[in-house]
């Protein structure tokens, strides 16, 4: 029965193809569905019309403490949100699947004694699980898969495009969430593309699983998740954060 149905399906498709006239350009054009119009930002980095603004420099209303979902205890000053060491990570109240994220960060002024992972460390956890590292990697040695724009402890950035201390960095992150089968196995892994200060540093990188400090990645089954920003004890600042679900 199944074979018969397949055969009929195949013949129908063949018939359909035969009926199409590929000598005409119109045969390979379609108008439906129409493409939605979006007004781009006025300048590079500014949110387009369909973006959800997560932080505009004035209010941290879209954010909560990751620890207890209470109010954010980071410092909101001068249009930036700055880590207050020991107050904990913060995360968006909303959760997201596939997205395009724009975020800007600045390393704090720190003495030369602050080195390696201790220099301007923070991080952006995609779906609360996968860390794109934030670090002052300007003339600062550390392990390659732990420097700025690495997928932490997995994939180093293609190049180091970190701005010098005091300058702002931009990340444009395109993230595709993992898909899981009903039995919990991975149907397709998560991937991430990161553009750092206009330079591609992660190019459709496959995410192996959670970005663990110790041990290999884990692969928990999950749905949508928040954007989480790390408190690693360094006063890293963030500004101009917006997201578009894809
Ligand atoms: Mg970090």
Task: Give the helices and strands, then pairings.
Layout: H1 2-19, E1 52-55, E2 63-65, E3 75-77, E4 80-82, E5 90-92, E6 99-106, E7 122-126, E8 130-134, E9 168-176, E10 179-180, E11 186-188, E12 191-196, E13 199-206, E14 228-229, E15 237-245
Antiparallel strand pairs: 1-15, 2-5, 3-4, 4-15, 5-14, 6-9, 6-15, 7-8, 7-14, 9-12, 10-11, 12-13
The structure holds magnesium ion.
> How many distinct helices?
1
- The total count of strands amounts to 15
Termini Cα gap: 40 Å
Order of helices and strands: HEEEEEEEEEEEEEEE
Secondary-structure arrangement, i.e. CATH architecture: Sandwich
For the largest beta-sheet, the strand count, sense and barrel status come to:
8 strands, antiparallel
Rg calculated over all Cα atoms? 22 Å
Give start-end ranges of low-pLDDT stretches: none
In short:
The chain is mainly beta and 246 residues long. The protein has a single domain, classed as Exo-inulinase, domain 1 (Jelly Rolls). It has one helix and 15 strands, in the order αβββββββββββββββ.
Would you give an account of this structure?
With 246 residues, this protein is mainly beta. The chain has a single domain, classed as Jelly Rolls (Sandwich), CATH 2.60.120. 7% of the residues lie in helices and 30% in strands. It contains one helix and 15 strands, in the order αβββββββββββββββ. The strands form three sheets. Strands 1, 3, 4, 6, 9, 12, 13 and 15 form an eight-stranded antiparallel β-sheet that branches. Strand 3 and strand 4 (80-82) form a beta hairpin. It is globular, with a radius of gyration of 22 Å. The mean pLDDT is 94. The chain binds magnesium ion. Magnesium ion (MG) is lined by residues 121-123, 131, 133-134, 230, 232.
């Amino acid at each position: 029965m199944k074979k018969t149905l397949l055969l009929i399906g195949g013949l129908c498709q063949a018939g359909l193809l035969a009926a199409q006239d590929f000598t005409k350009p119109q045969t390979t054009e379609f108008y439906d569905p129409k493409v939605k119009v979006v007004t781009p930002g006025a300048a590079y980095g500014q949110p387009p019309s369909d973006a959800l603004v997560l932080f505009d420099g004035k209010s941290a209303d879209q954010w909560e403490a990751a620890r207890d979902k209470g109010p954010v205890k980071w410092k909101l000053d001068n249009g930036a949100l700055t880590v207050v060491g020991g107050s904990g990570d913060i995360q968006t109240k909303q959760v997201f699947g596939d997205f395009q994220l724009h975020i800007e960060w600045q390393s704090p002024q720190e003495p030369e004694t602050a080195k390696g992972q201790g220099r301007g460390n923070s991080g952006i956890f995609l779906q609360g699980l996968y860390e794109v590292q934030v670090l002052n990697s300007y003339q600062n040695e550390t392990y390659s898969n732990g420097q700025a724009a690495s997928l932490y402890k997995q994939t180093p950035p293609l190049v180091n495009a970190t701005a010098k201390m005091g300058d702002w960095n931009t990340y444009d992150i395109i993230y595709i969430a993992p898909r899981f089968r009903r039995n919990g196995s991975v149907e397709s892994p998560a991937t991430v593309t990161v553009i750092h200060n206009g330079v591609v540093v992660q190019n459709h990188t496959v995410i192996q699983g959670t970005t663990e400090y110790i041990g290999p990645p884990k692969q928990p089954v999950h749905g949508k998740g928040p954007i989480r920003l790390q408190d690693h004890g360094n006063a890293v600042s963030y500004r101009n954060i917006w997201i578009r679900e894809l």
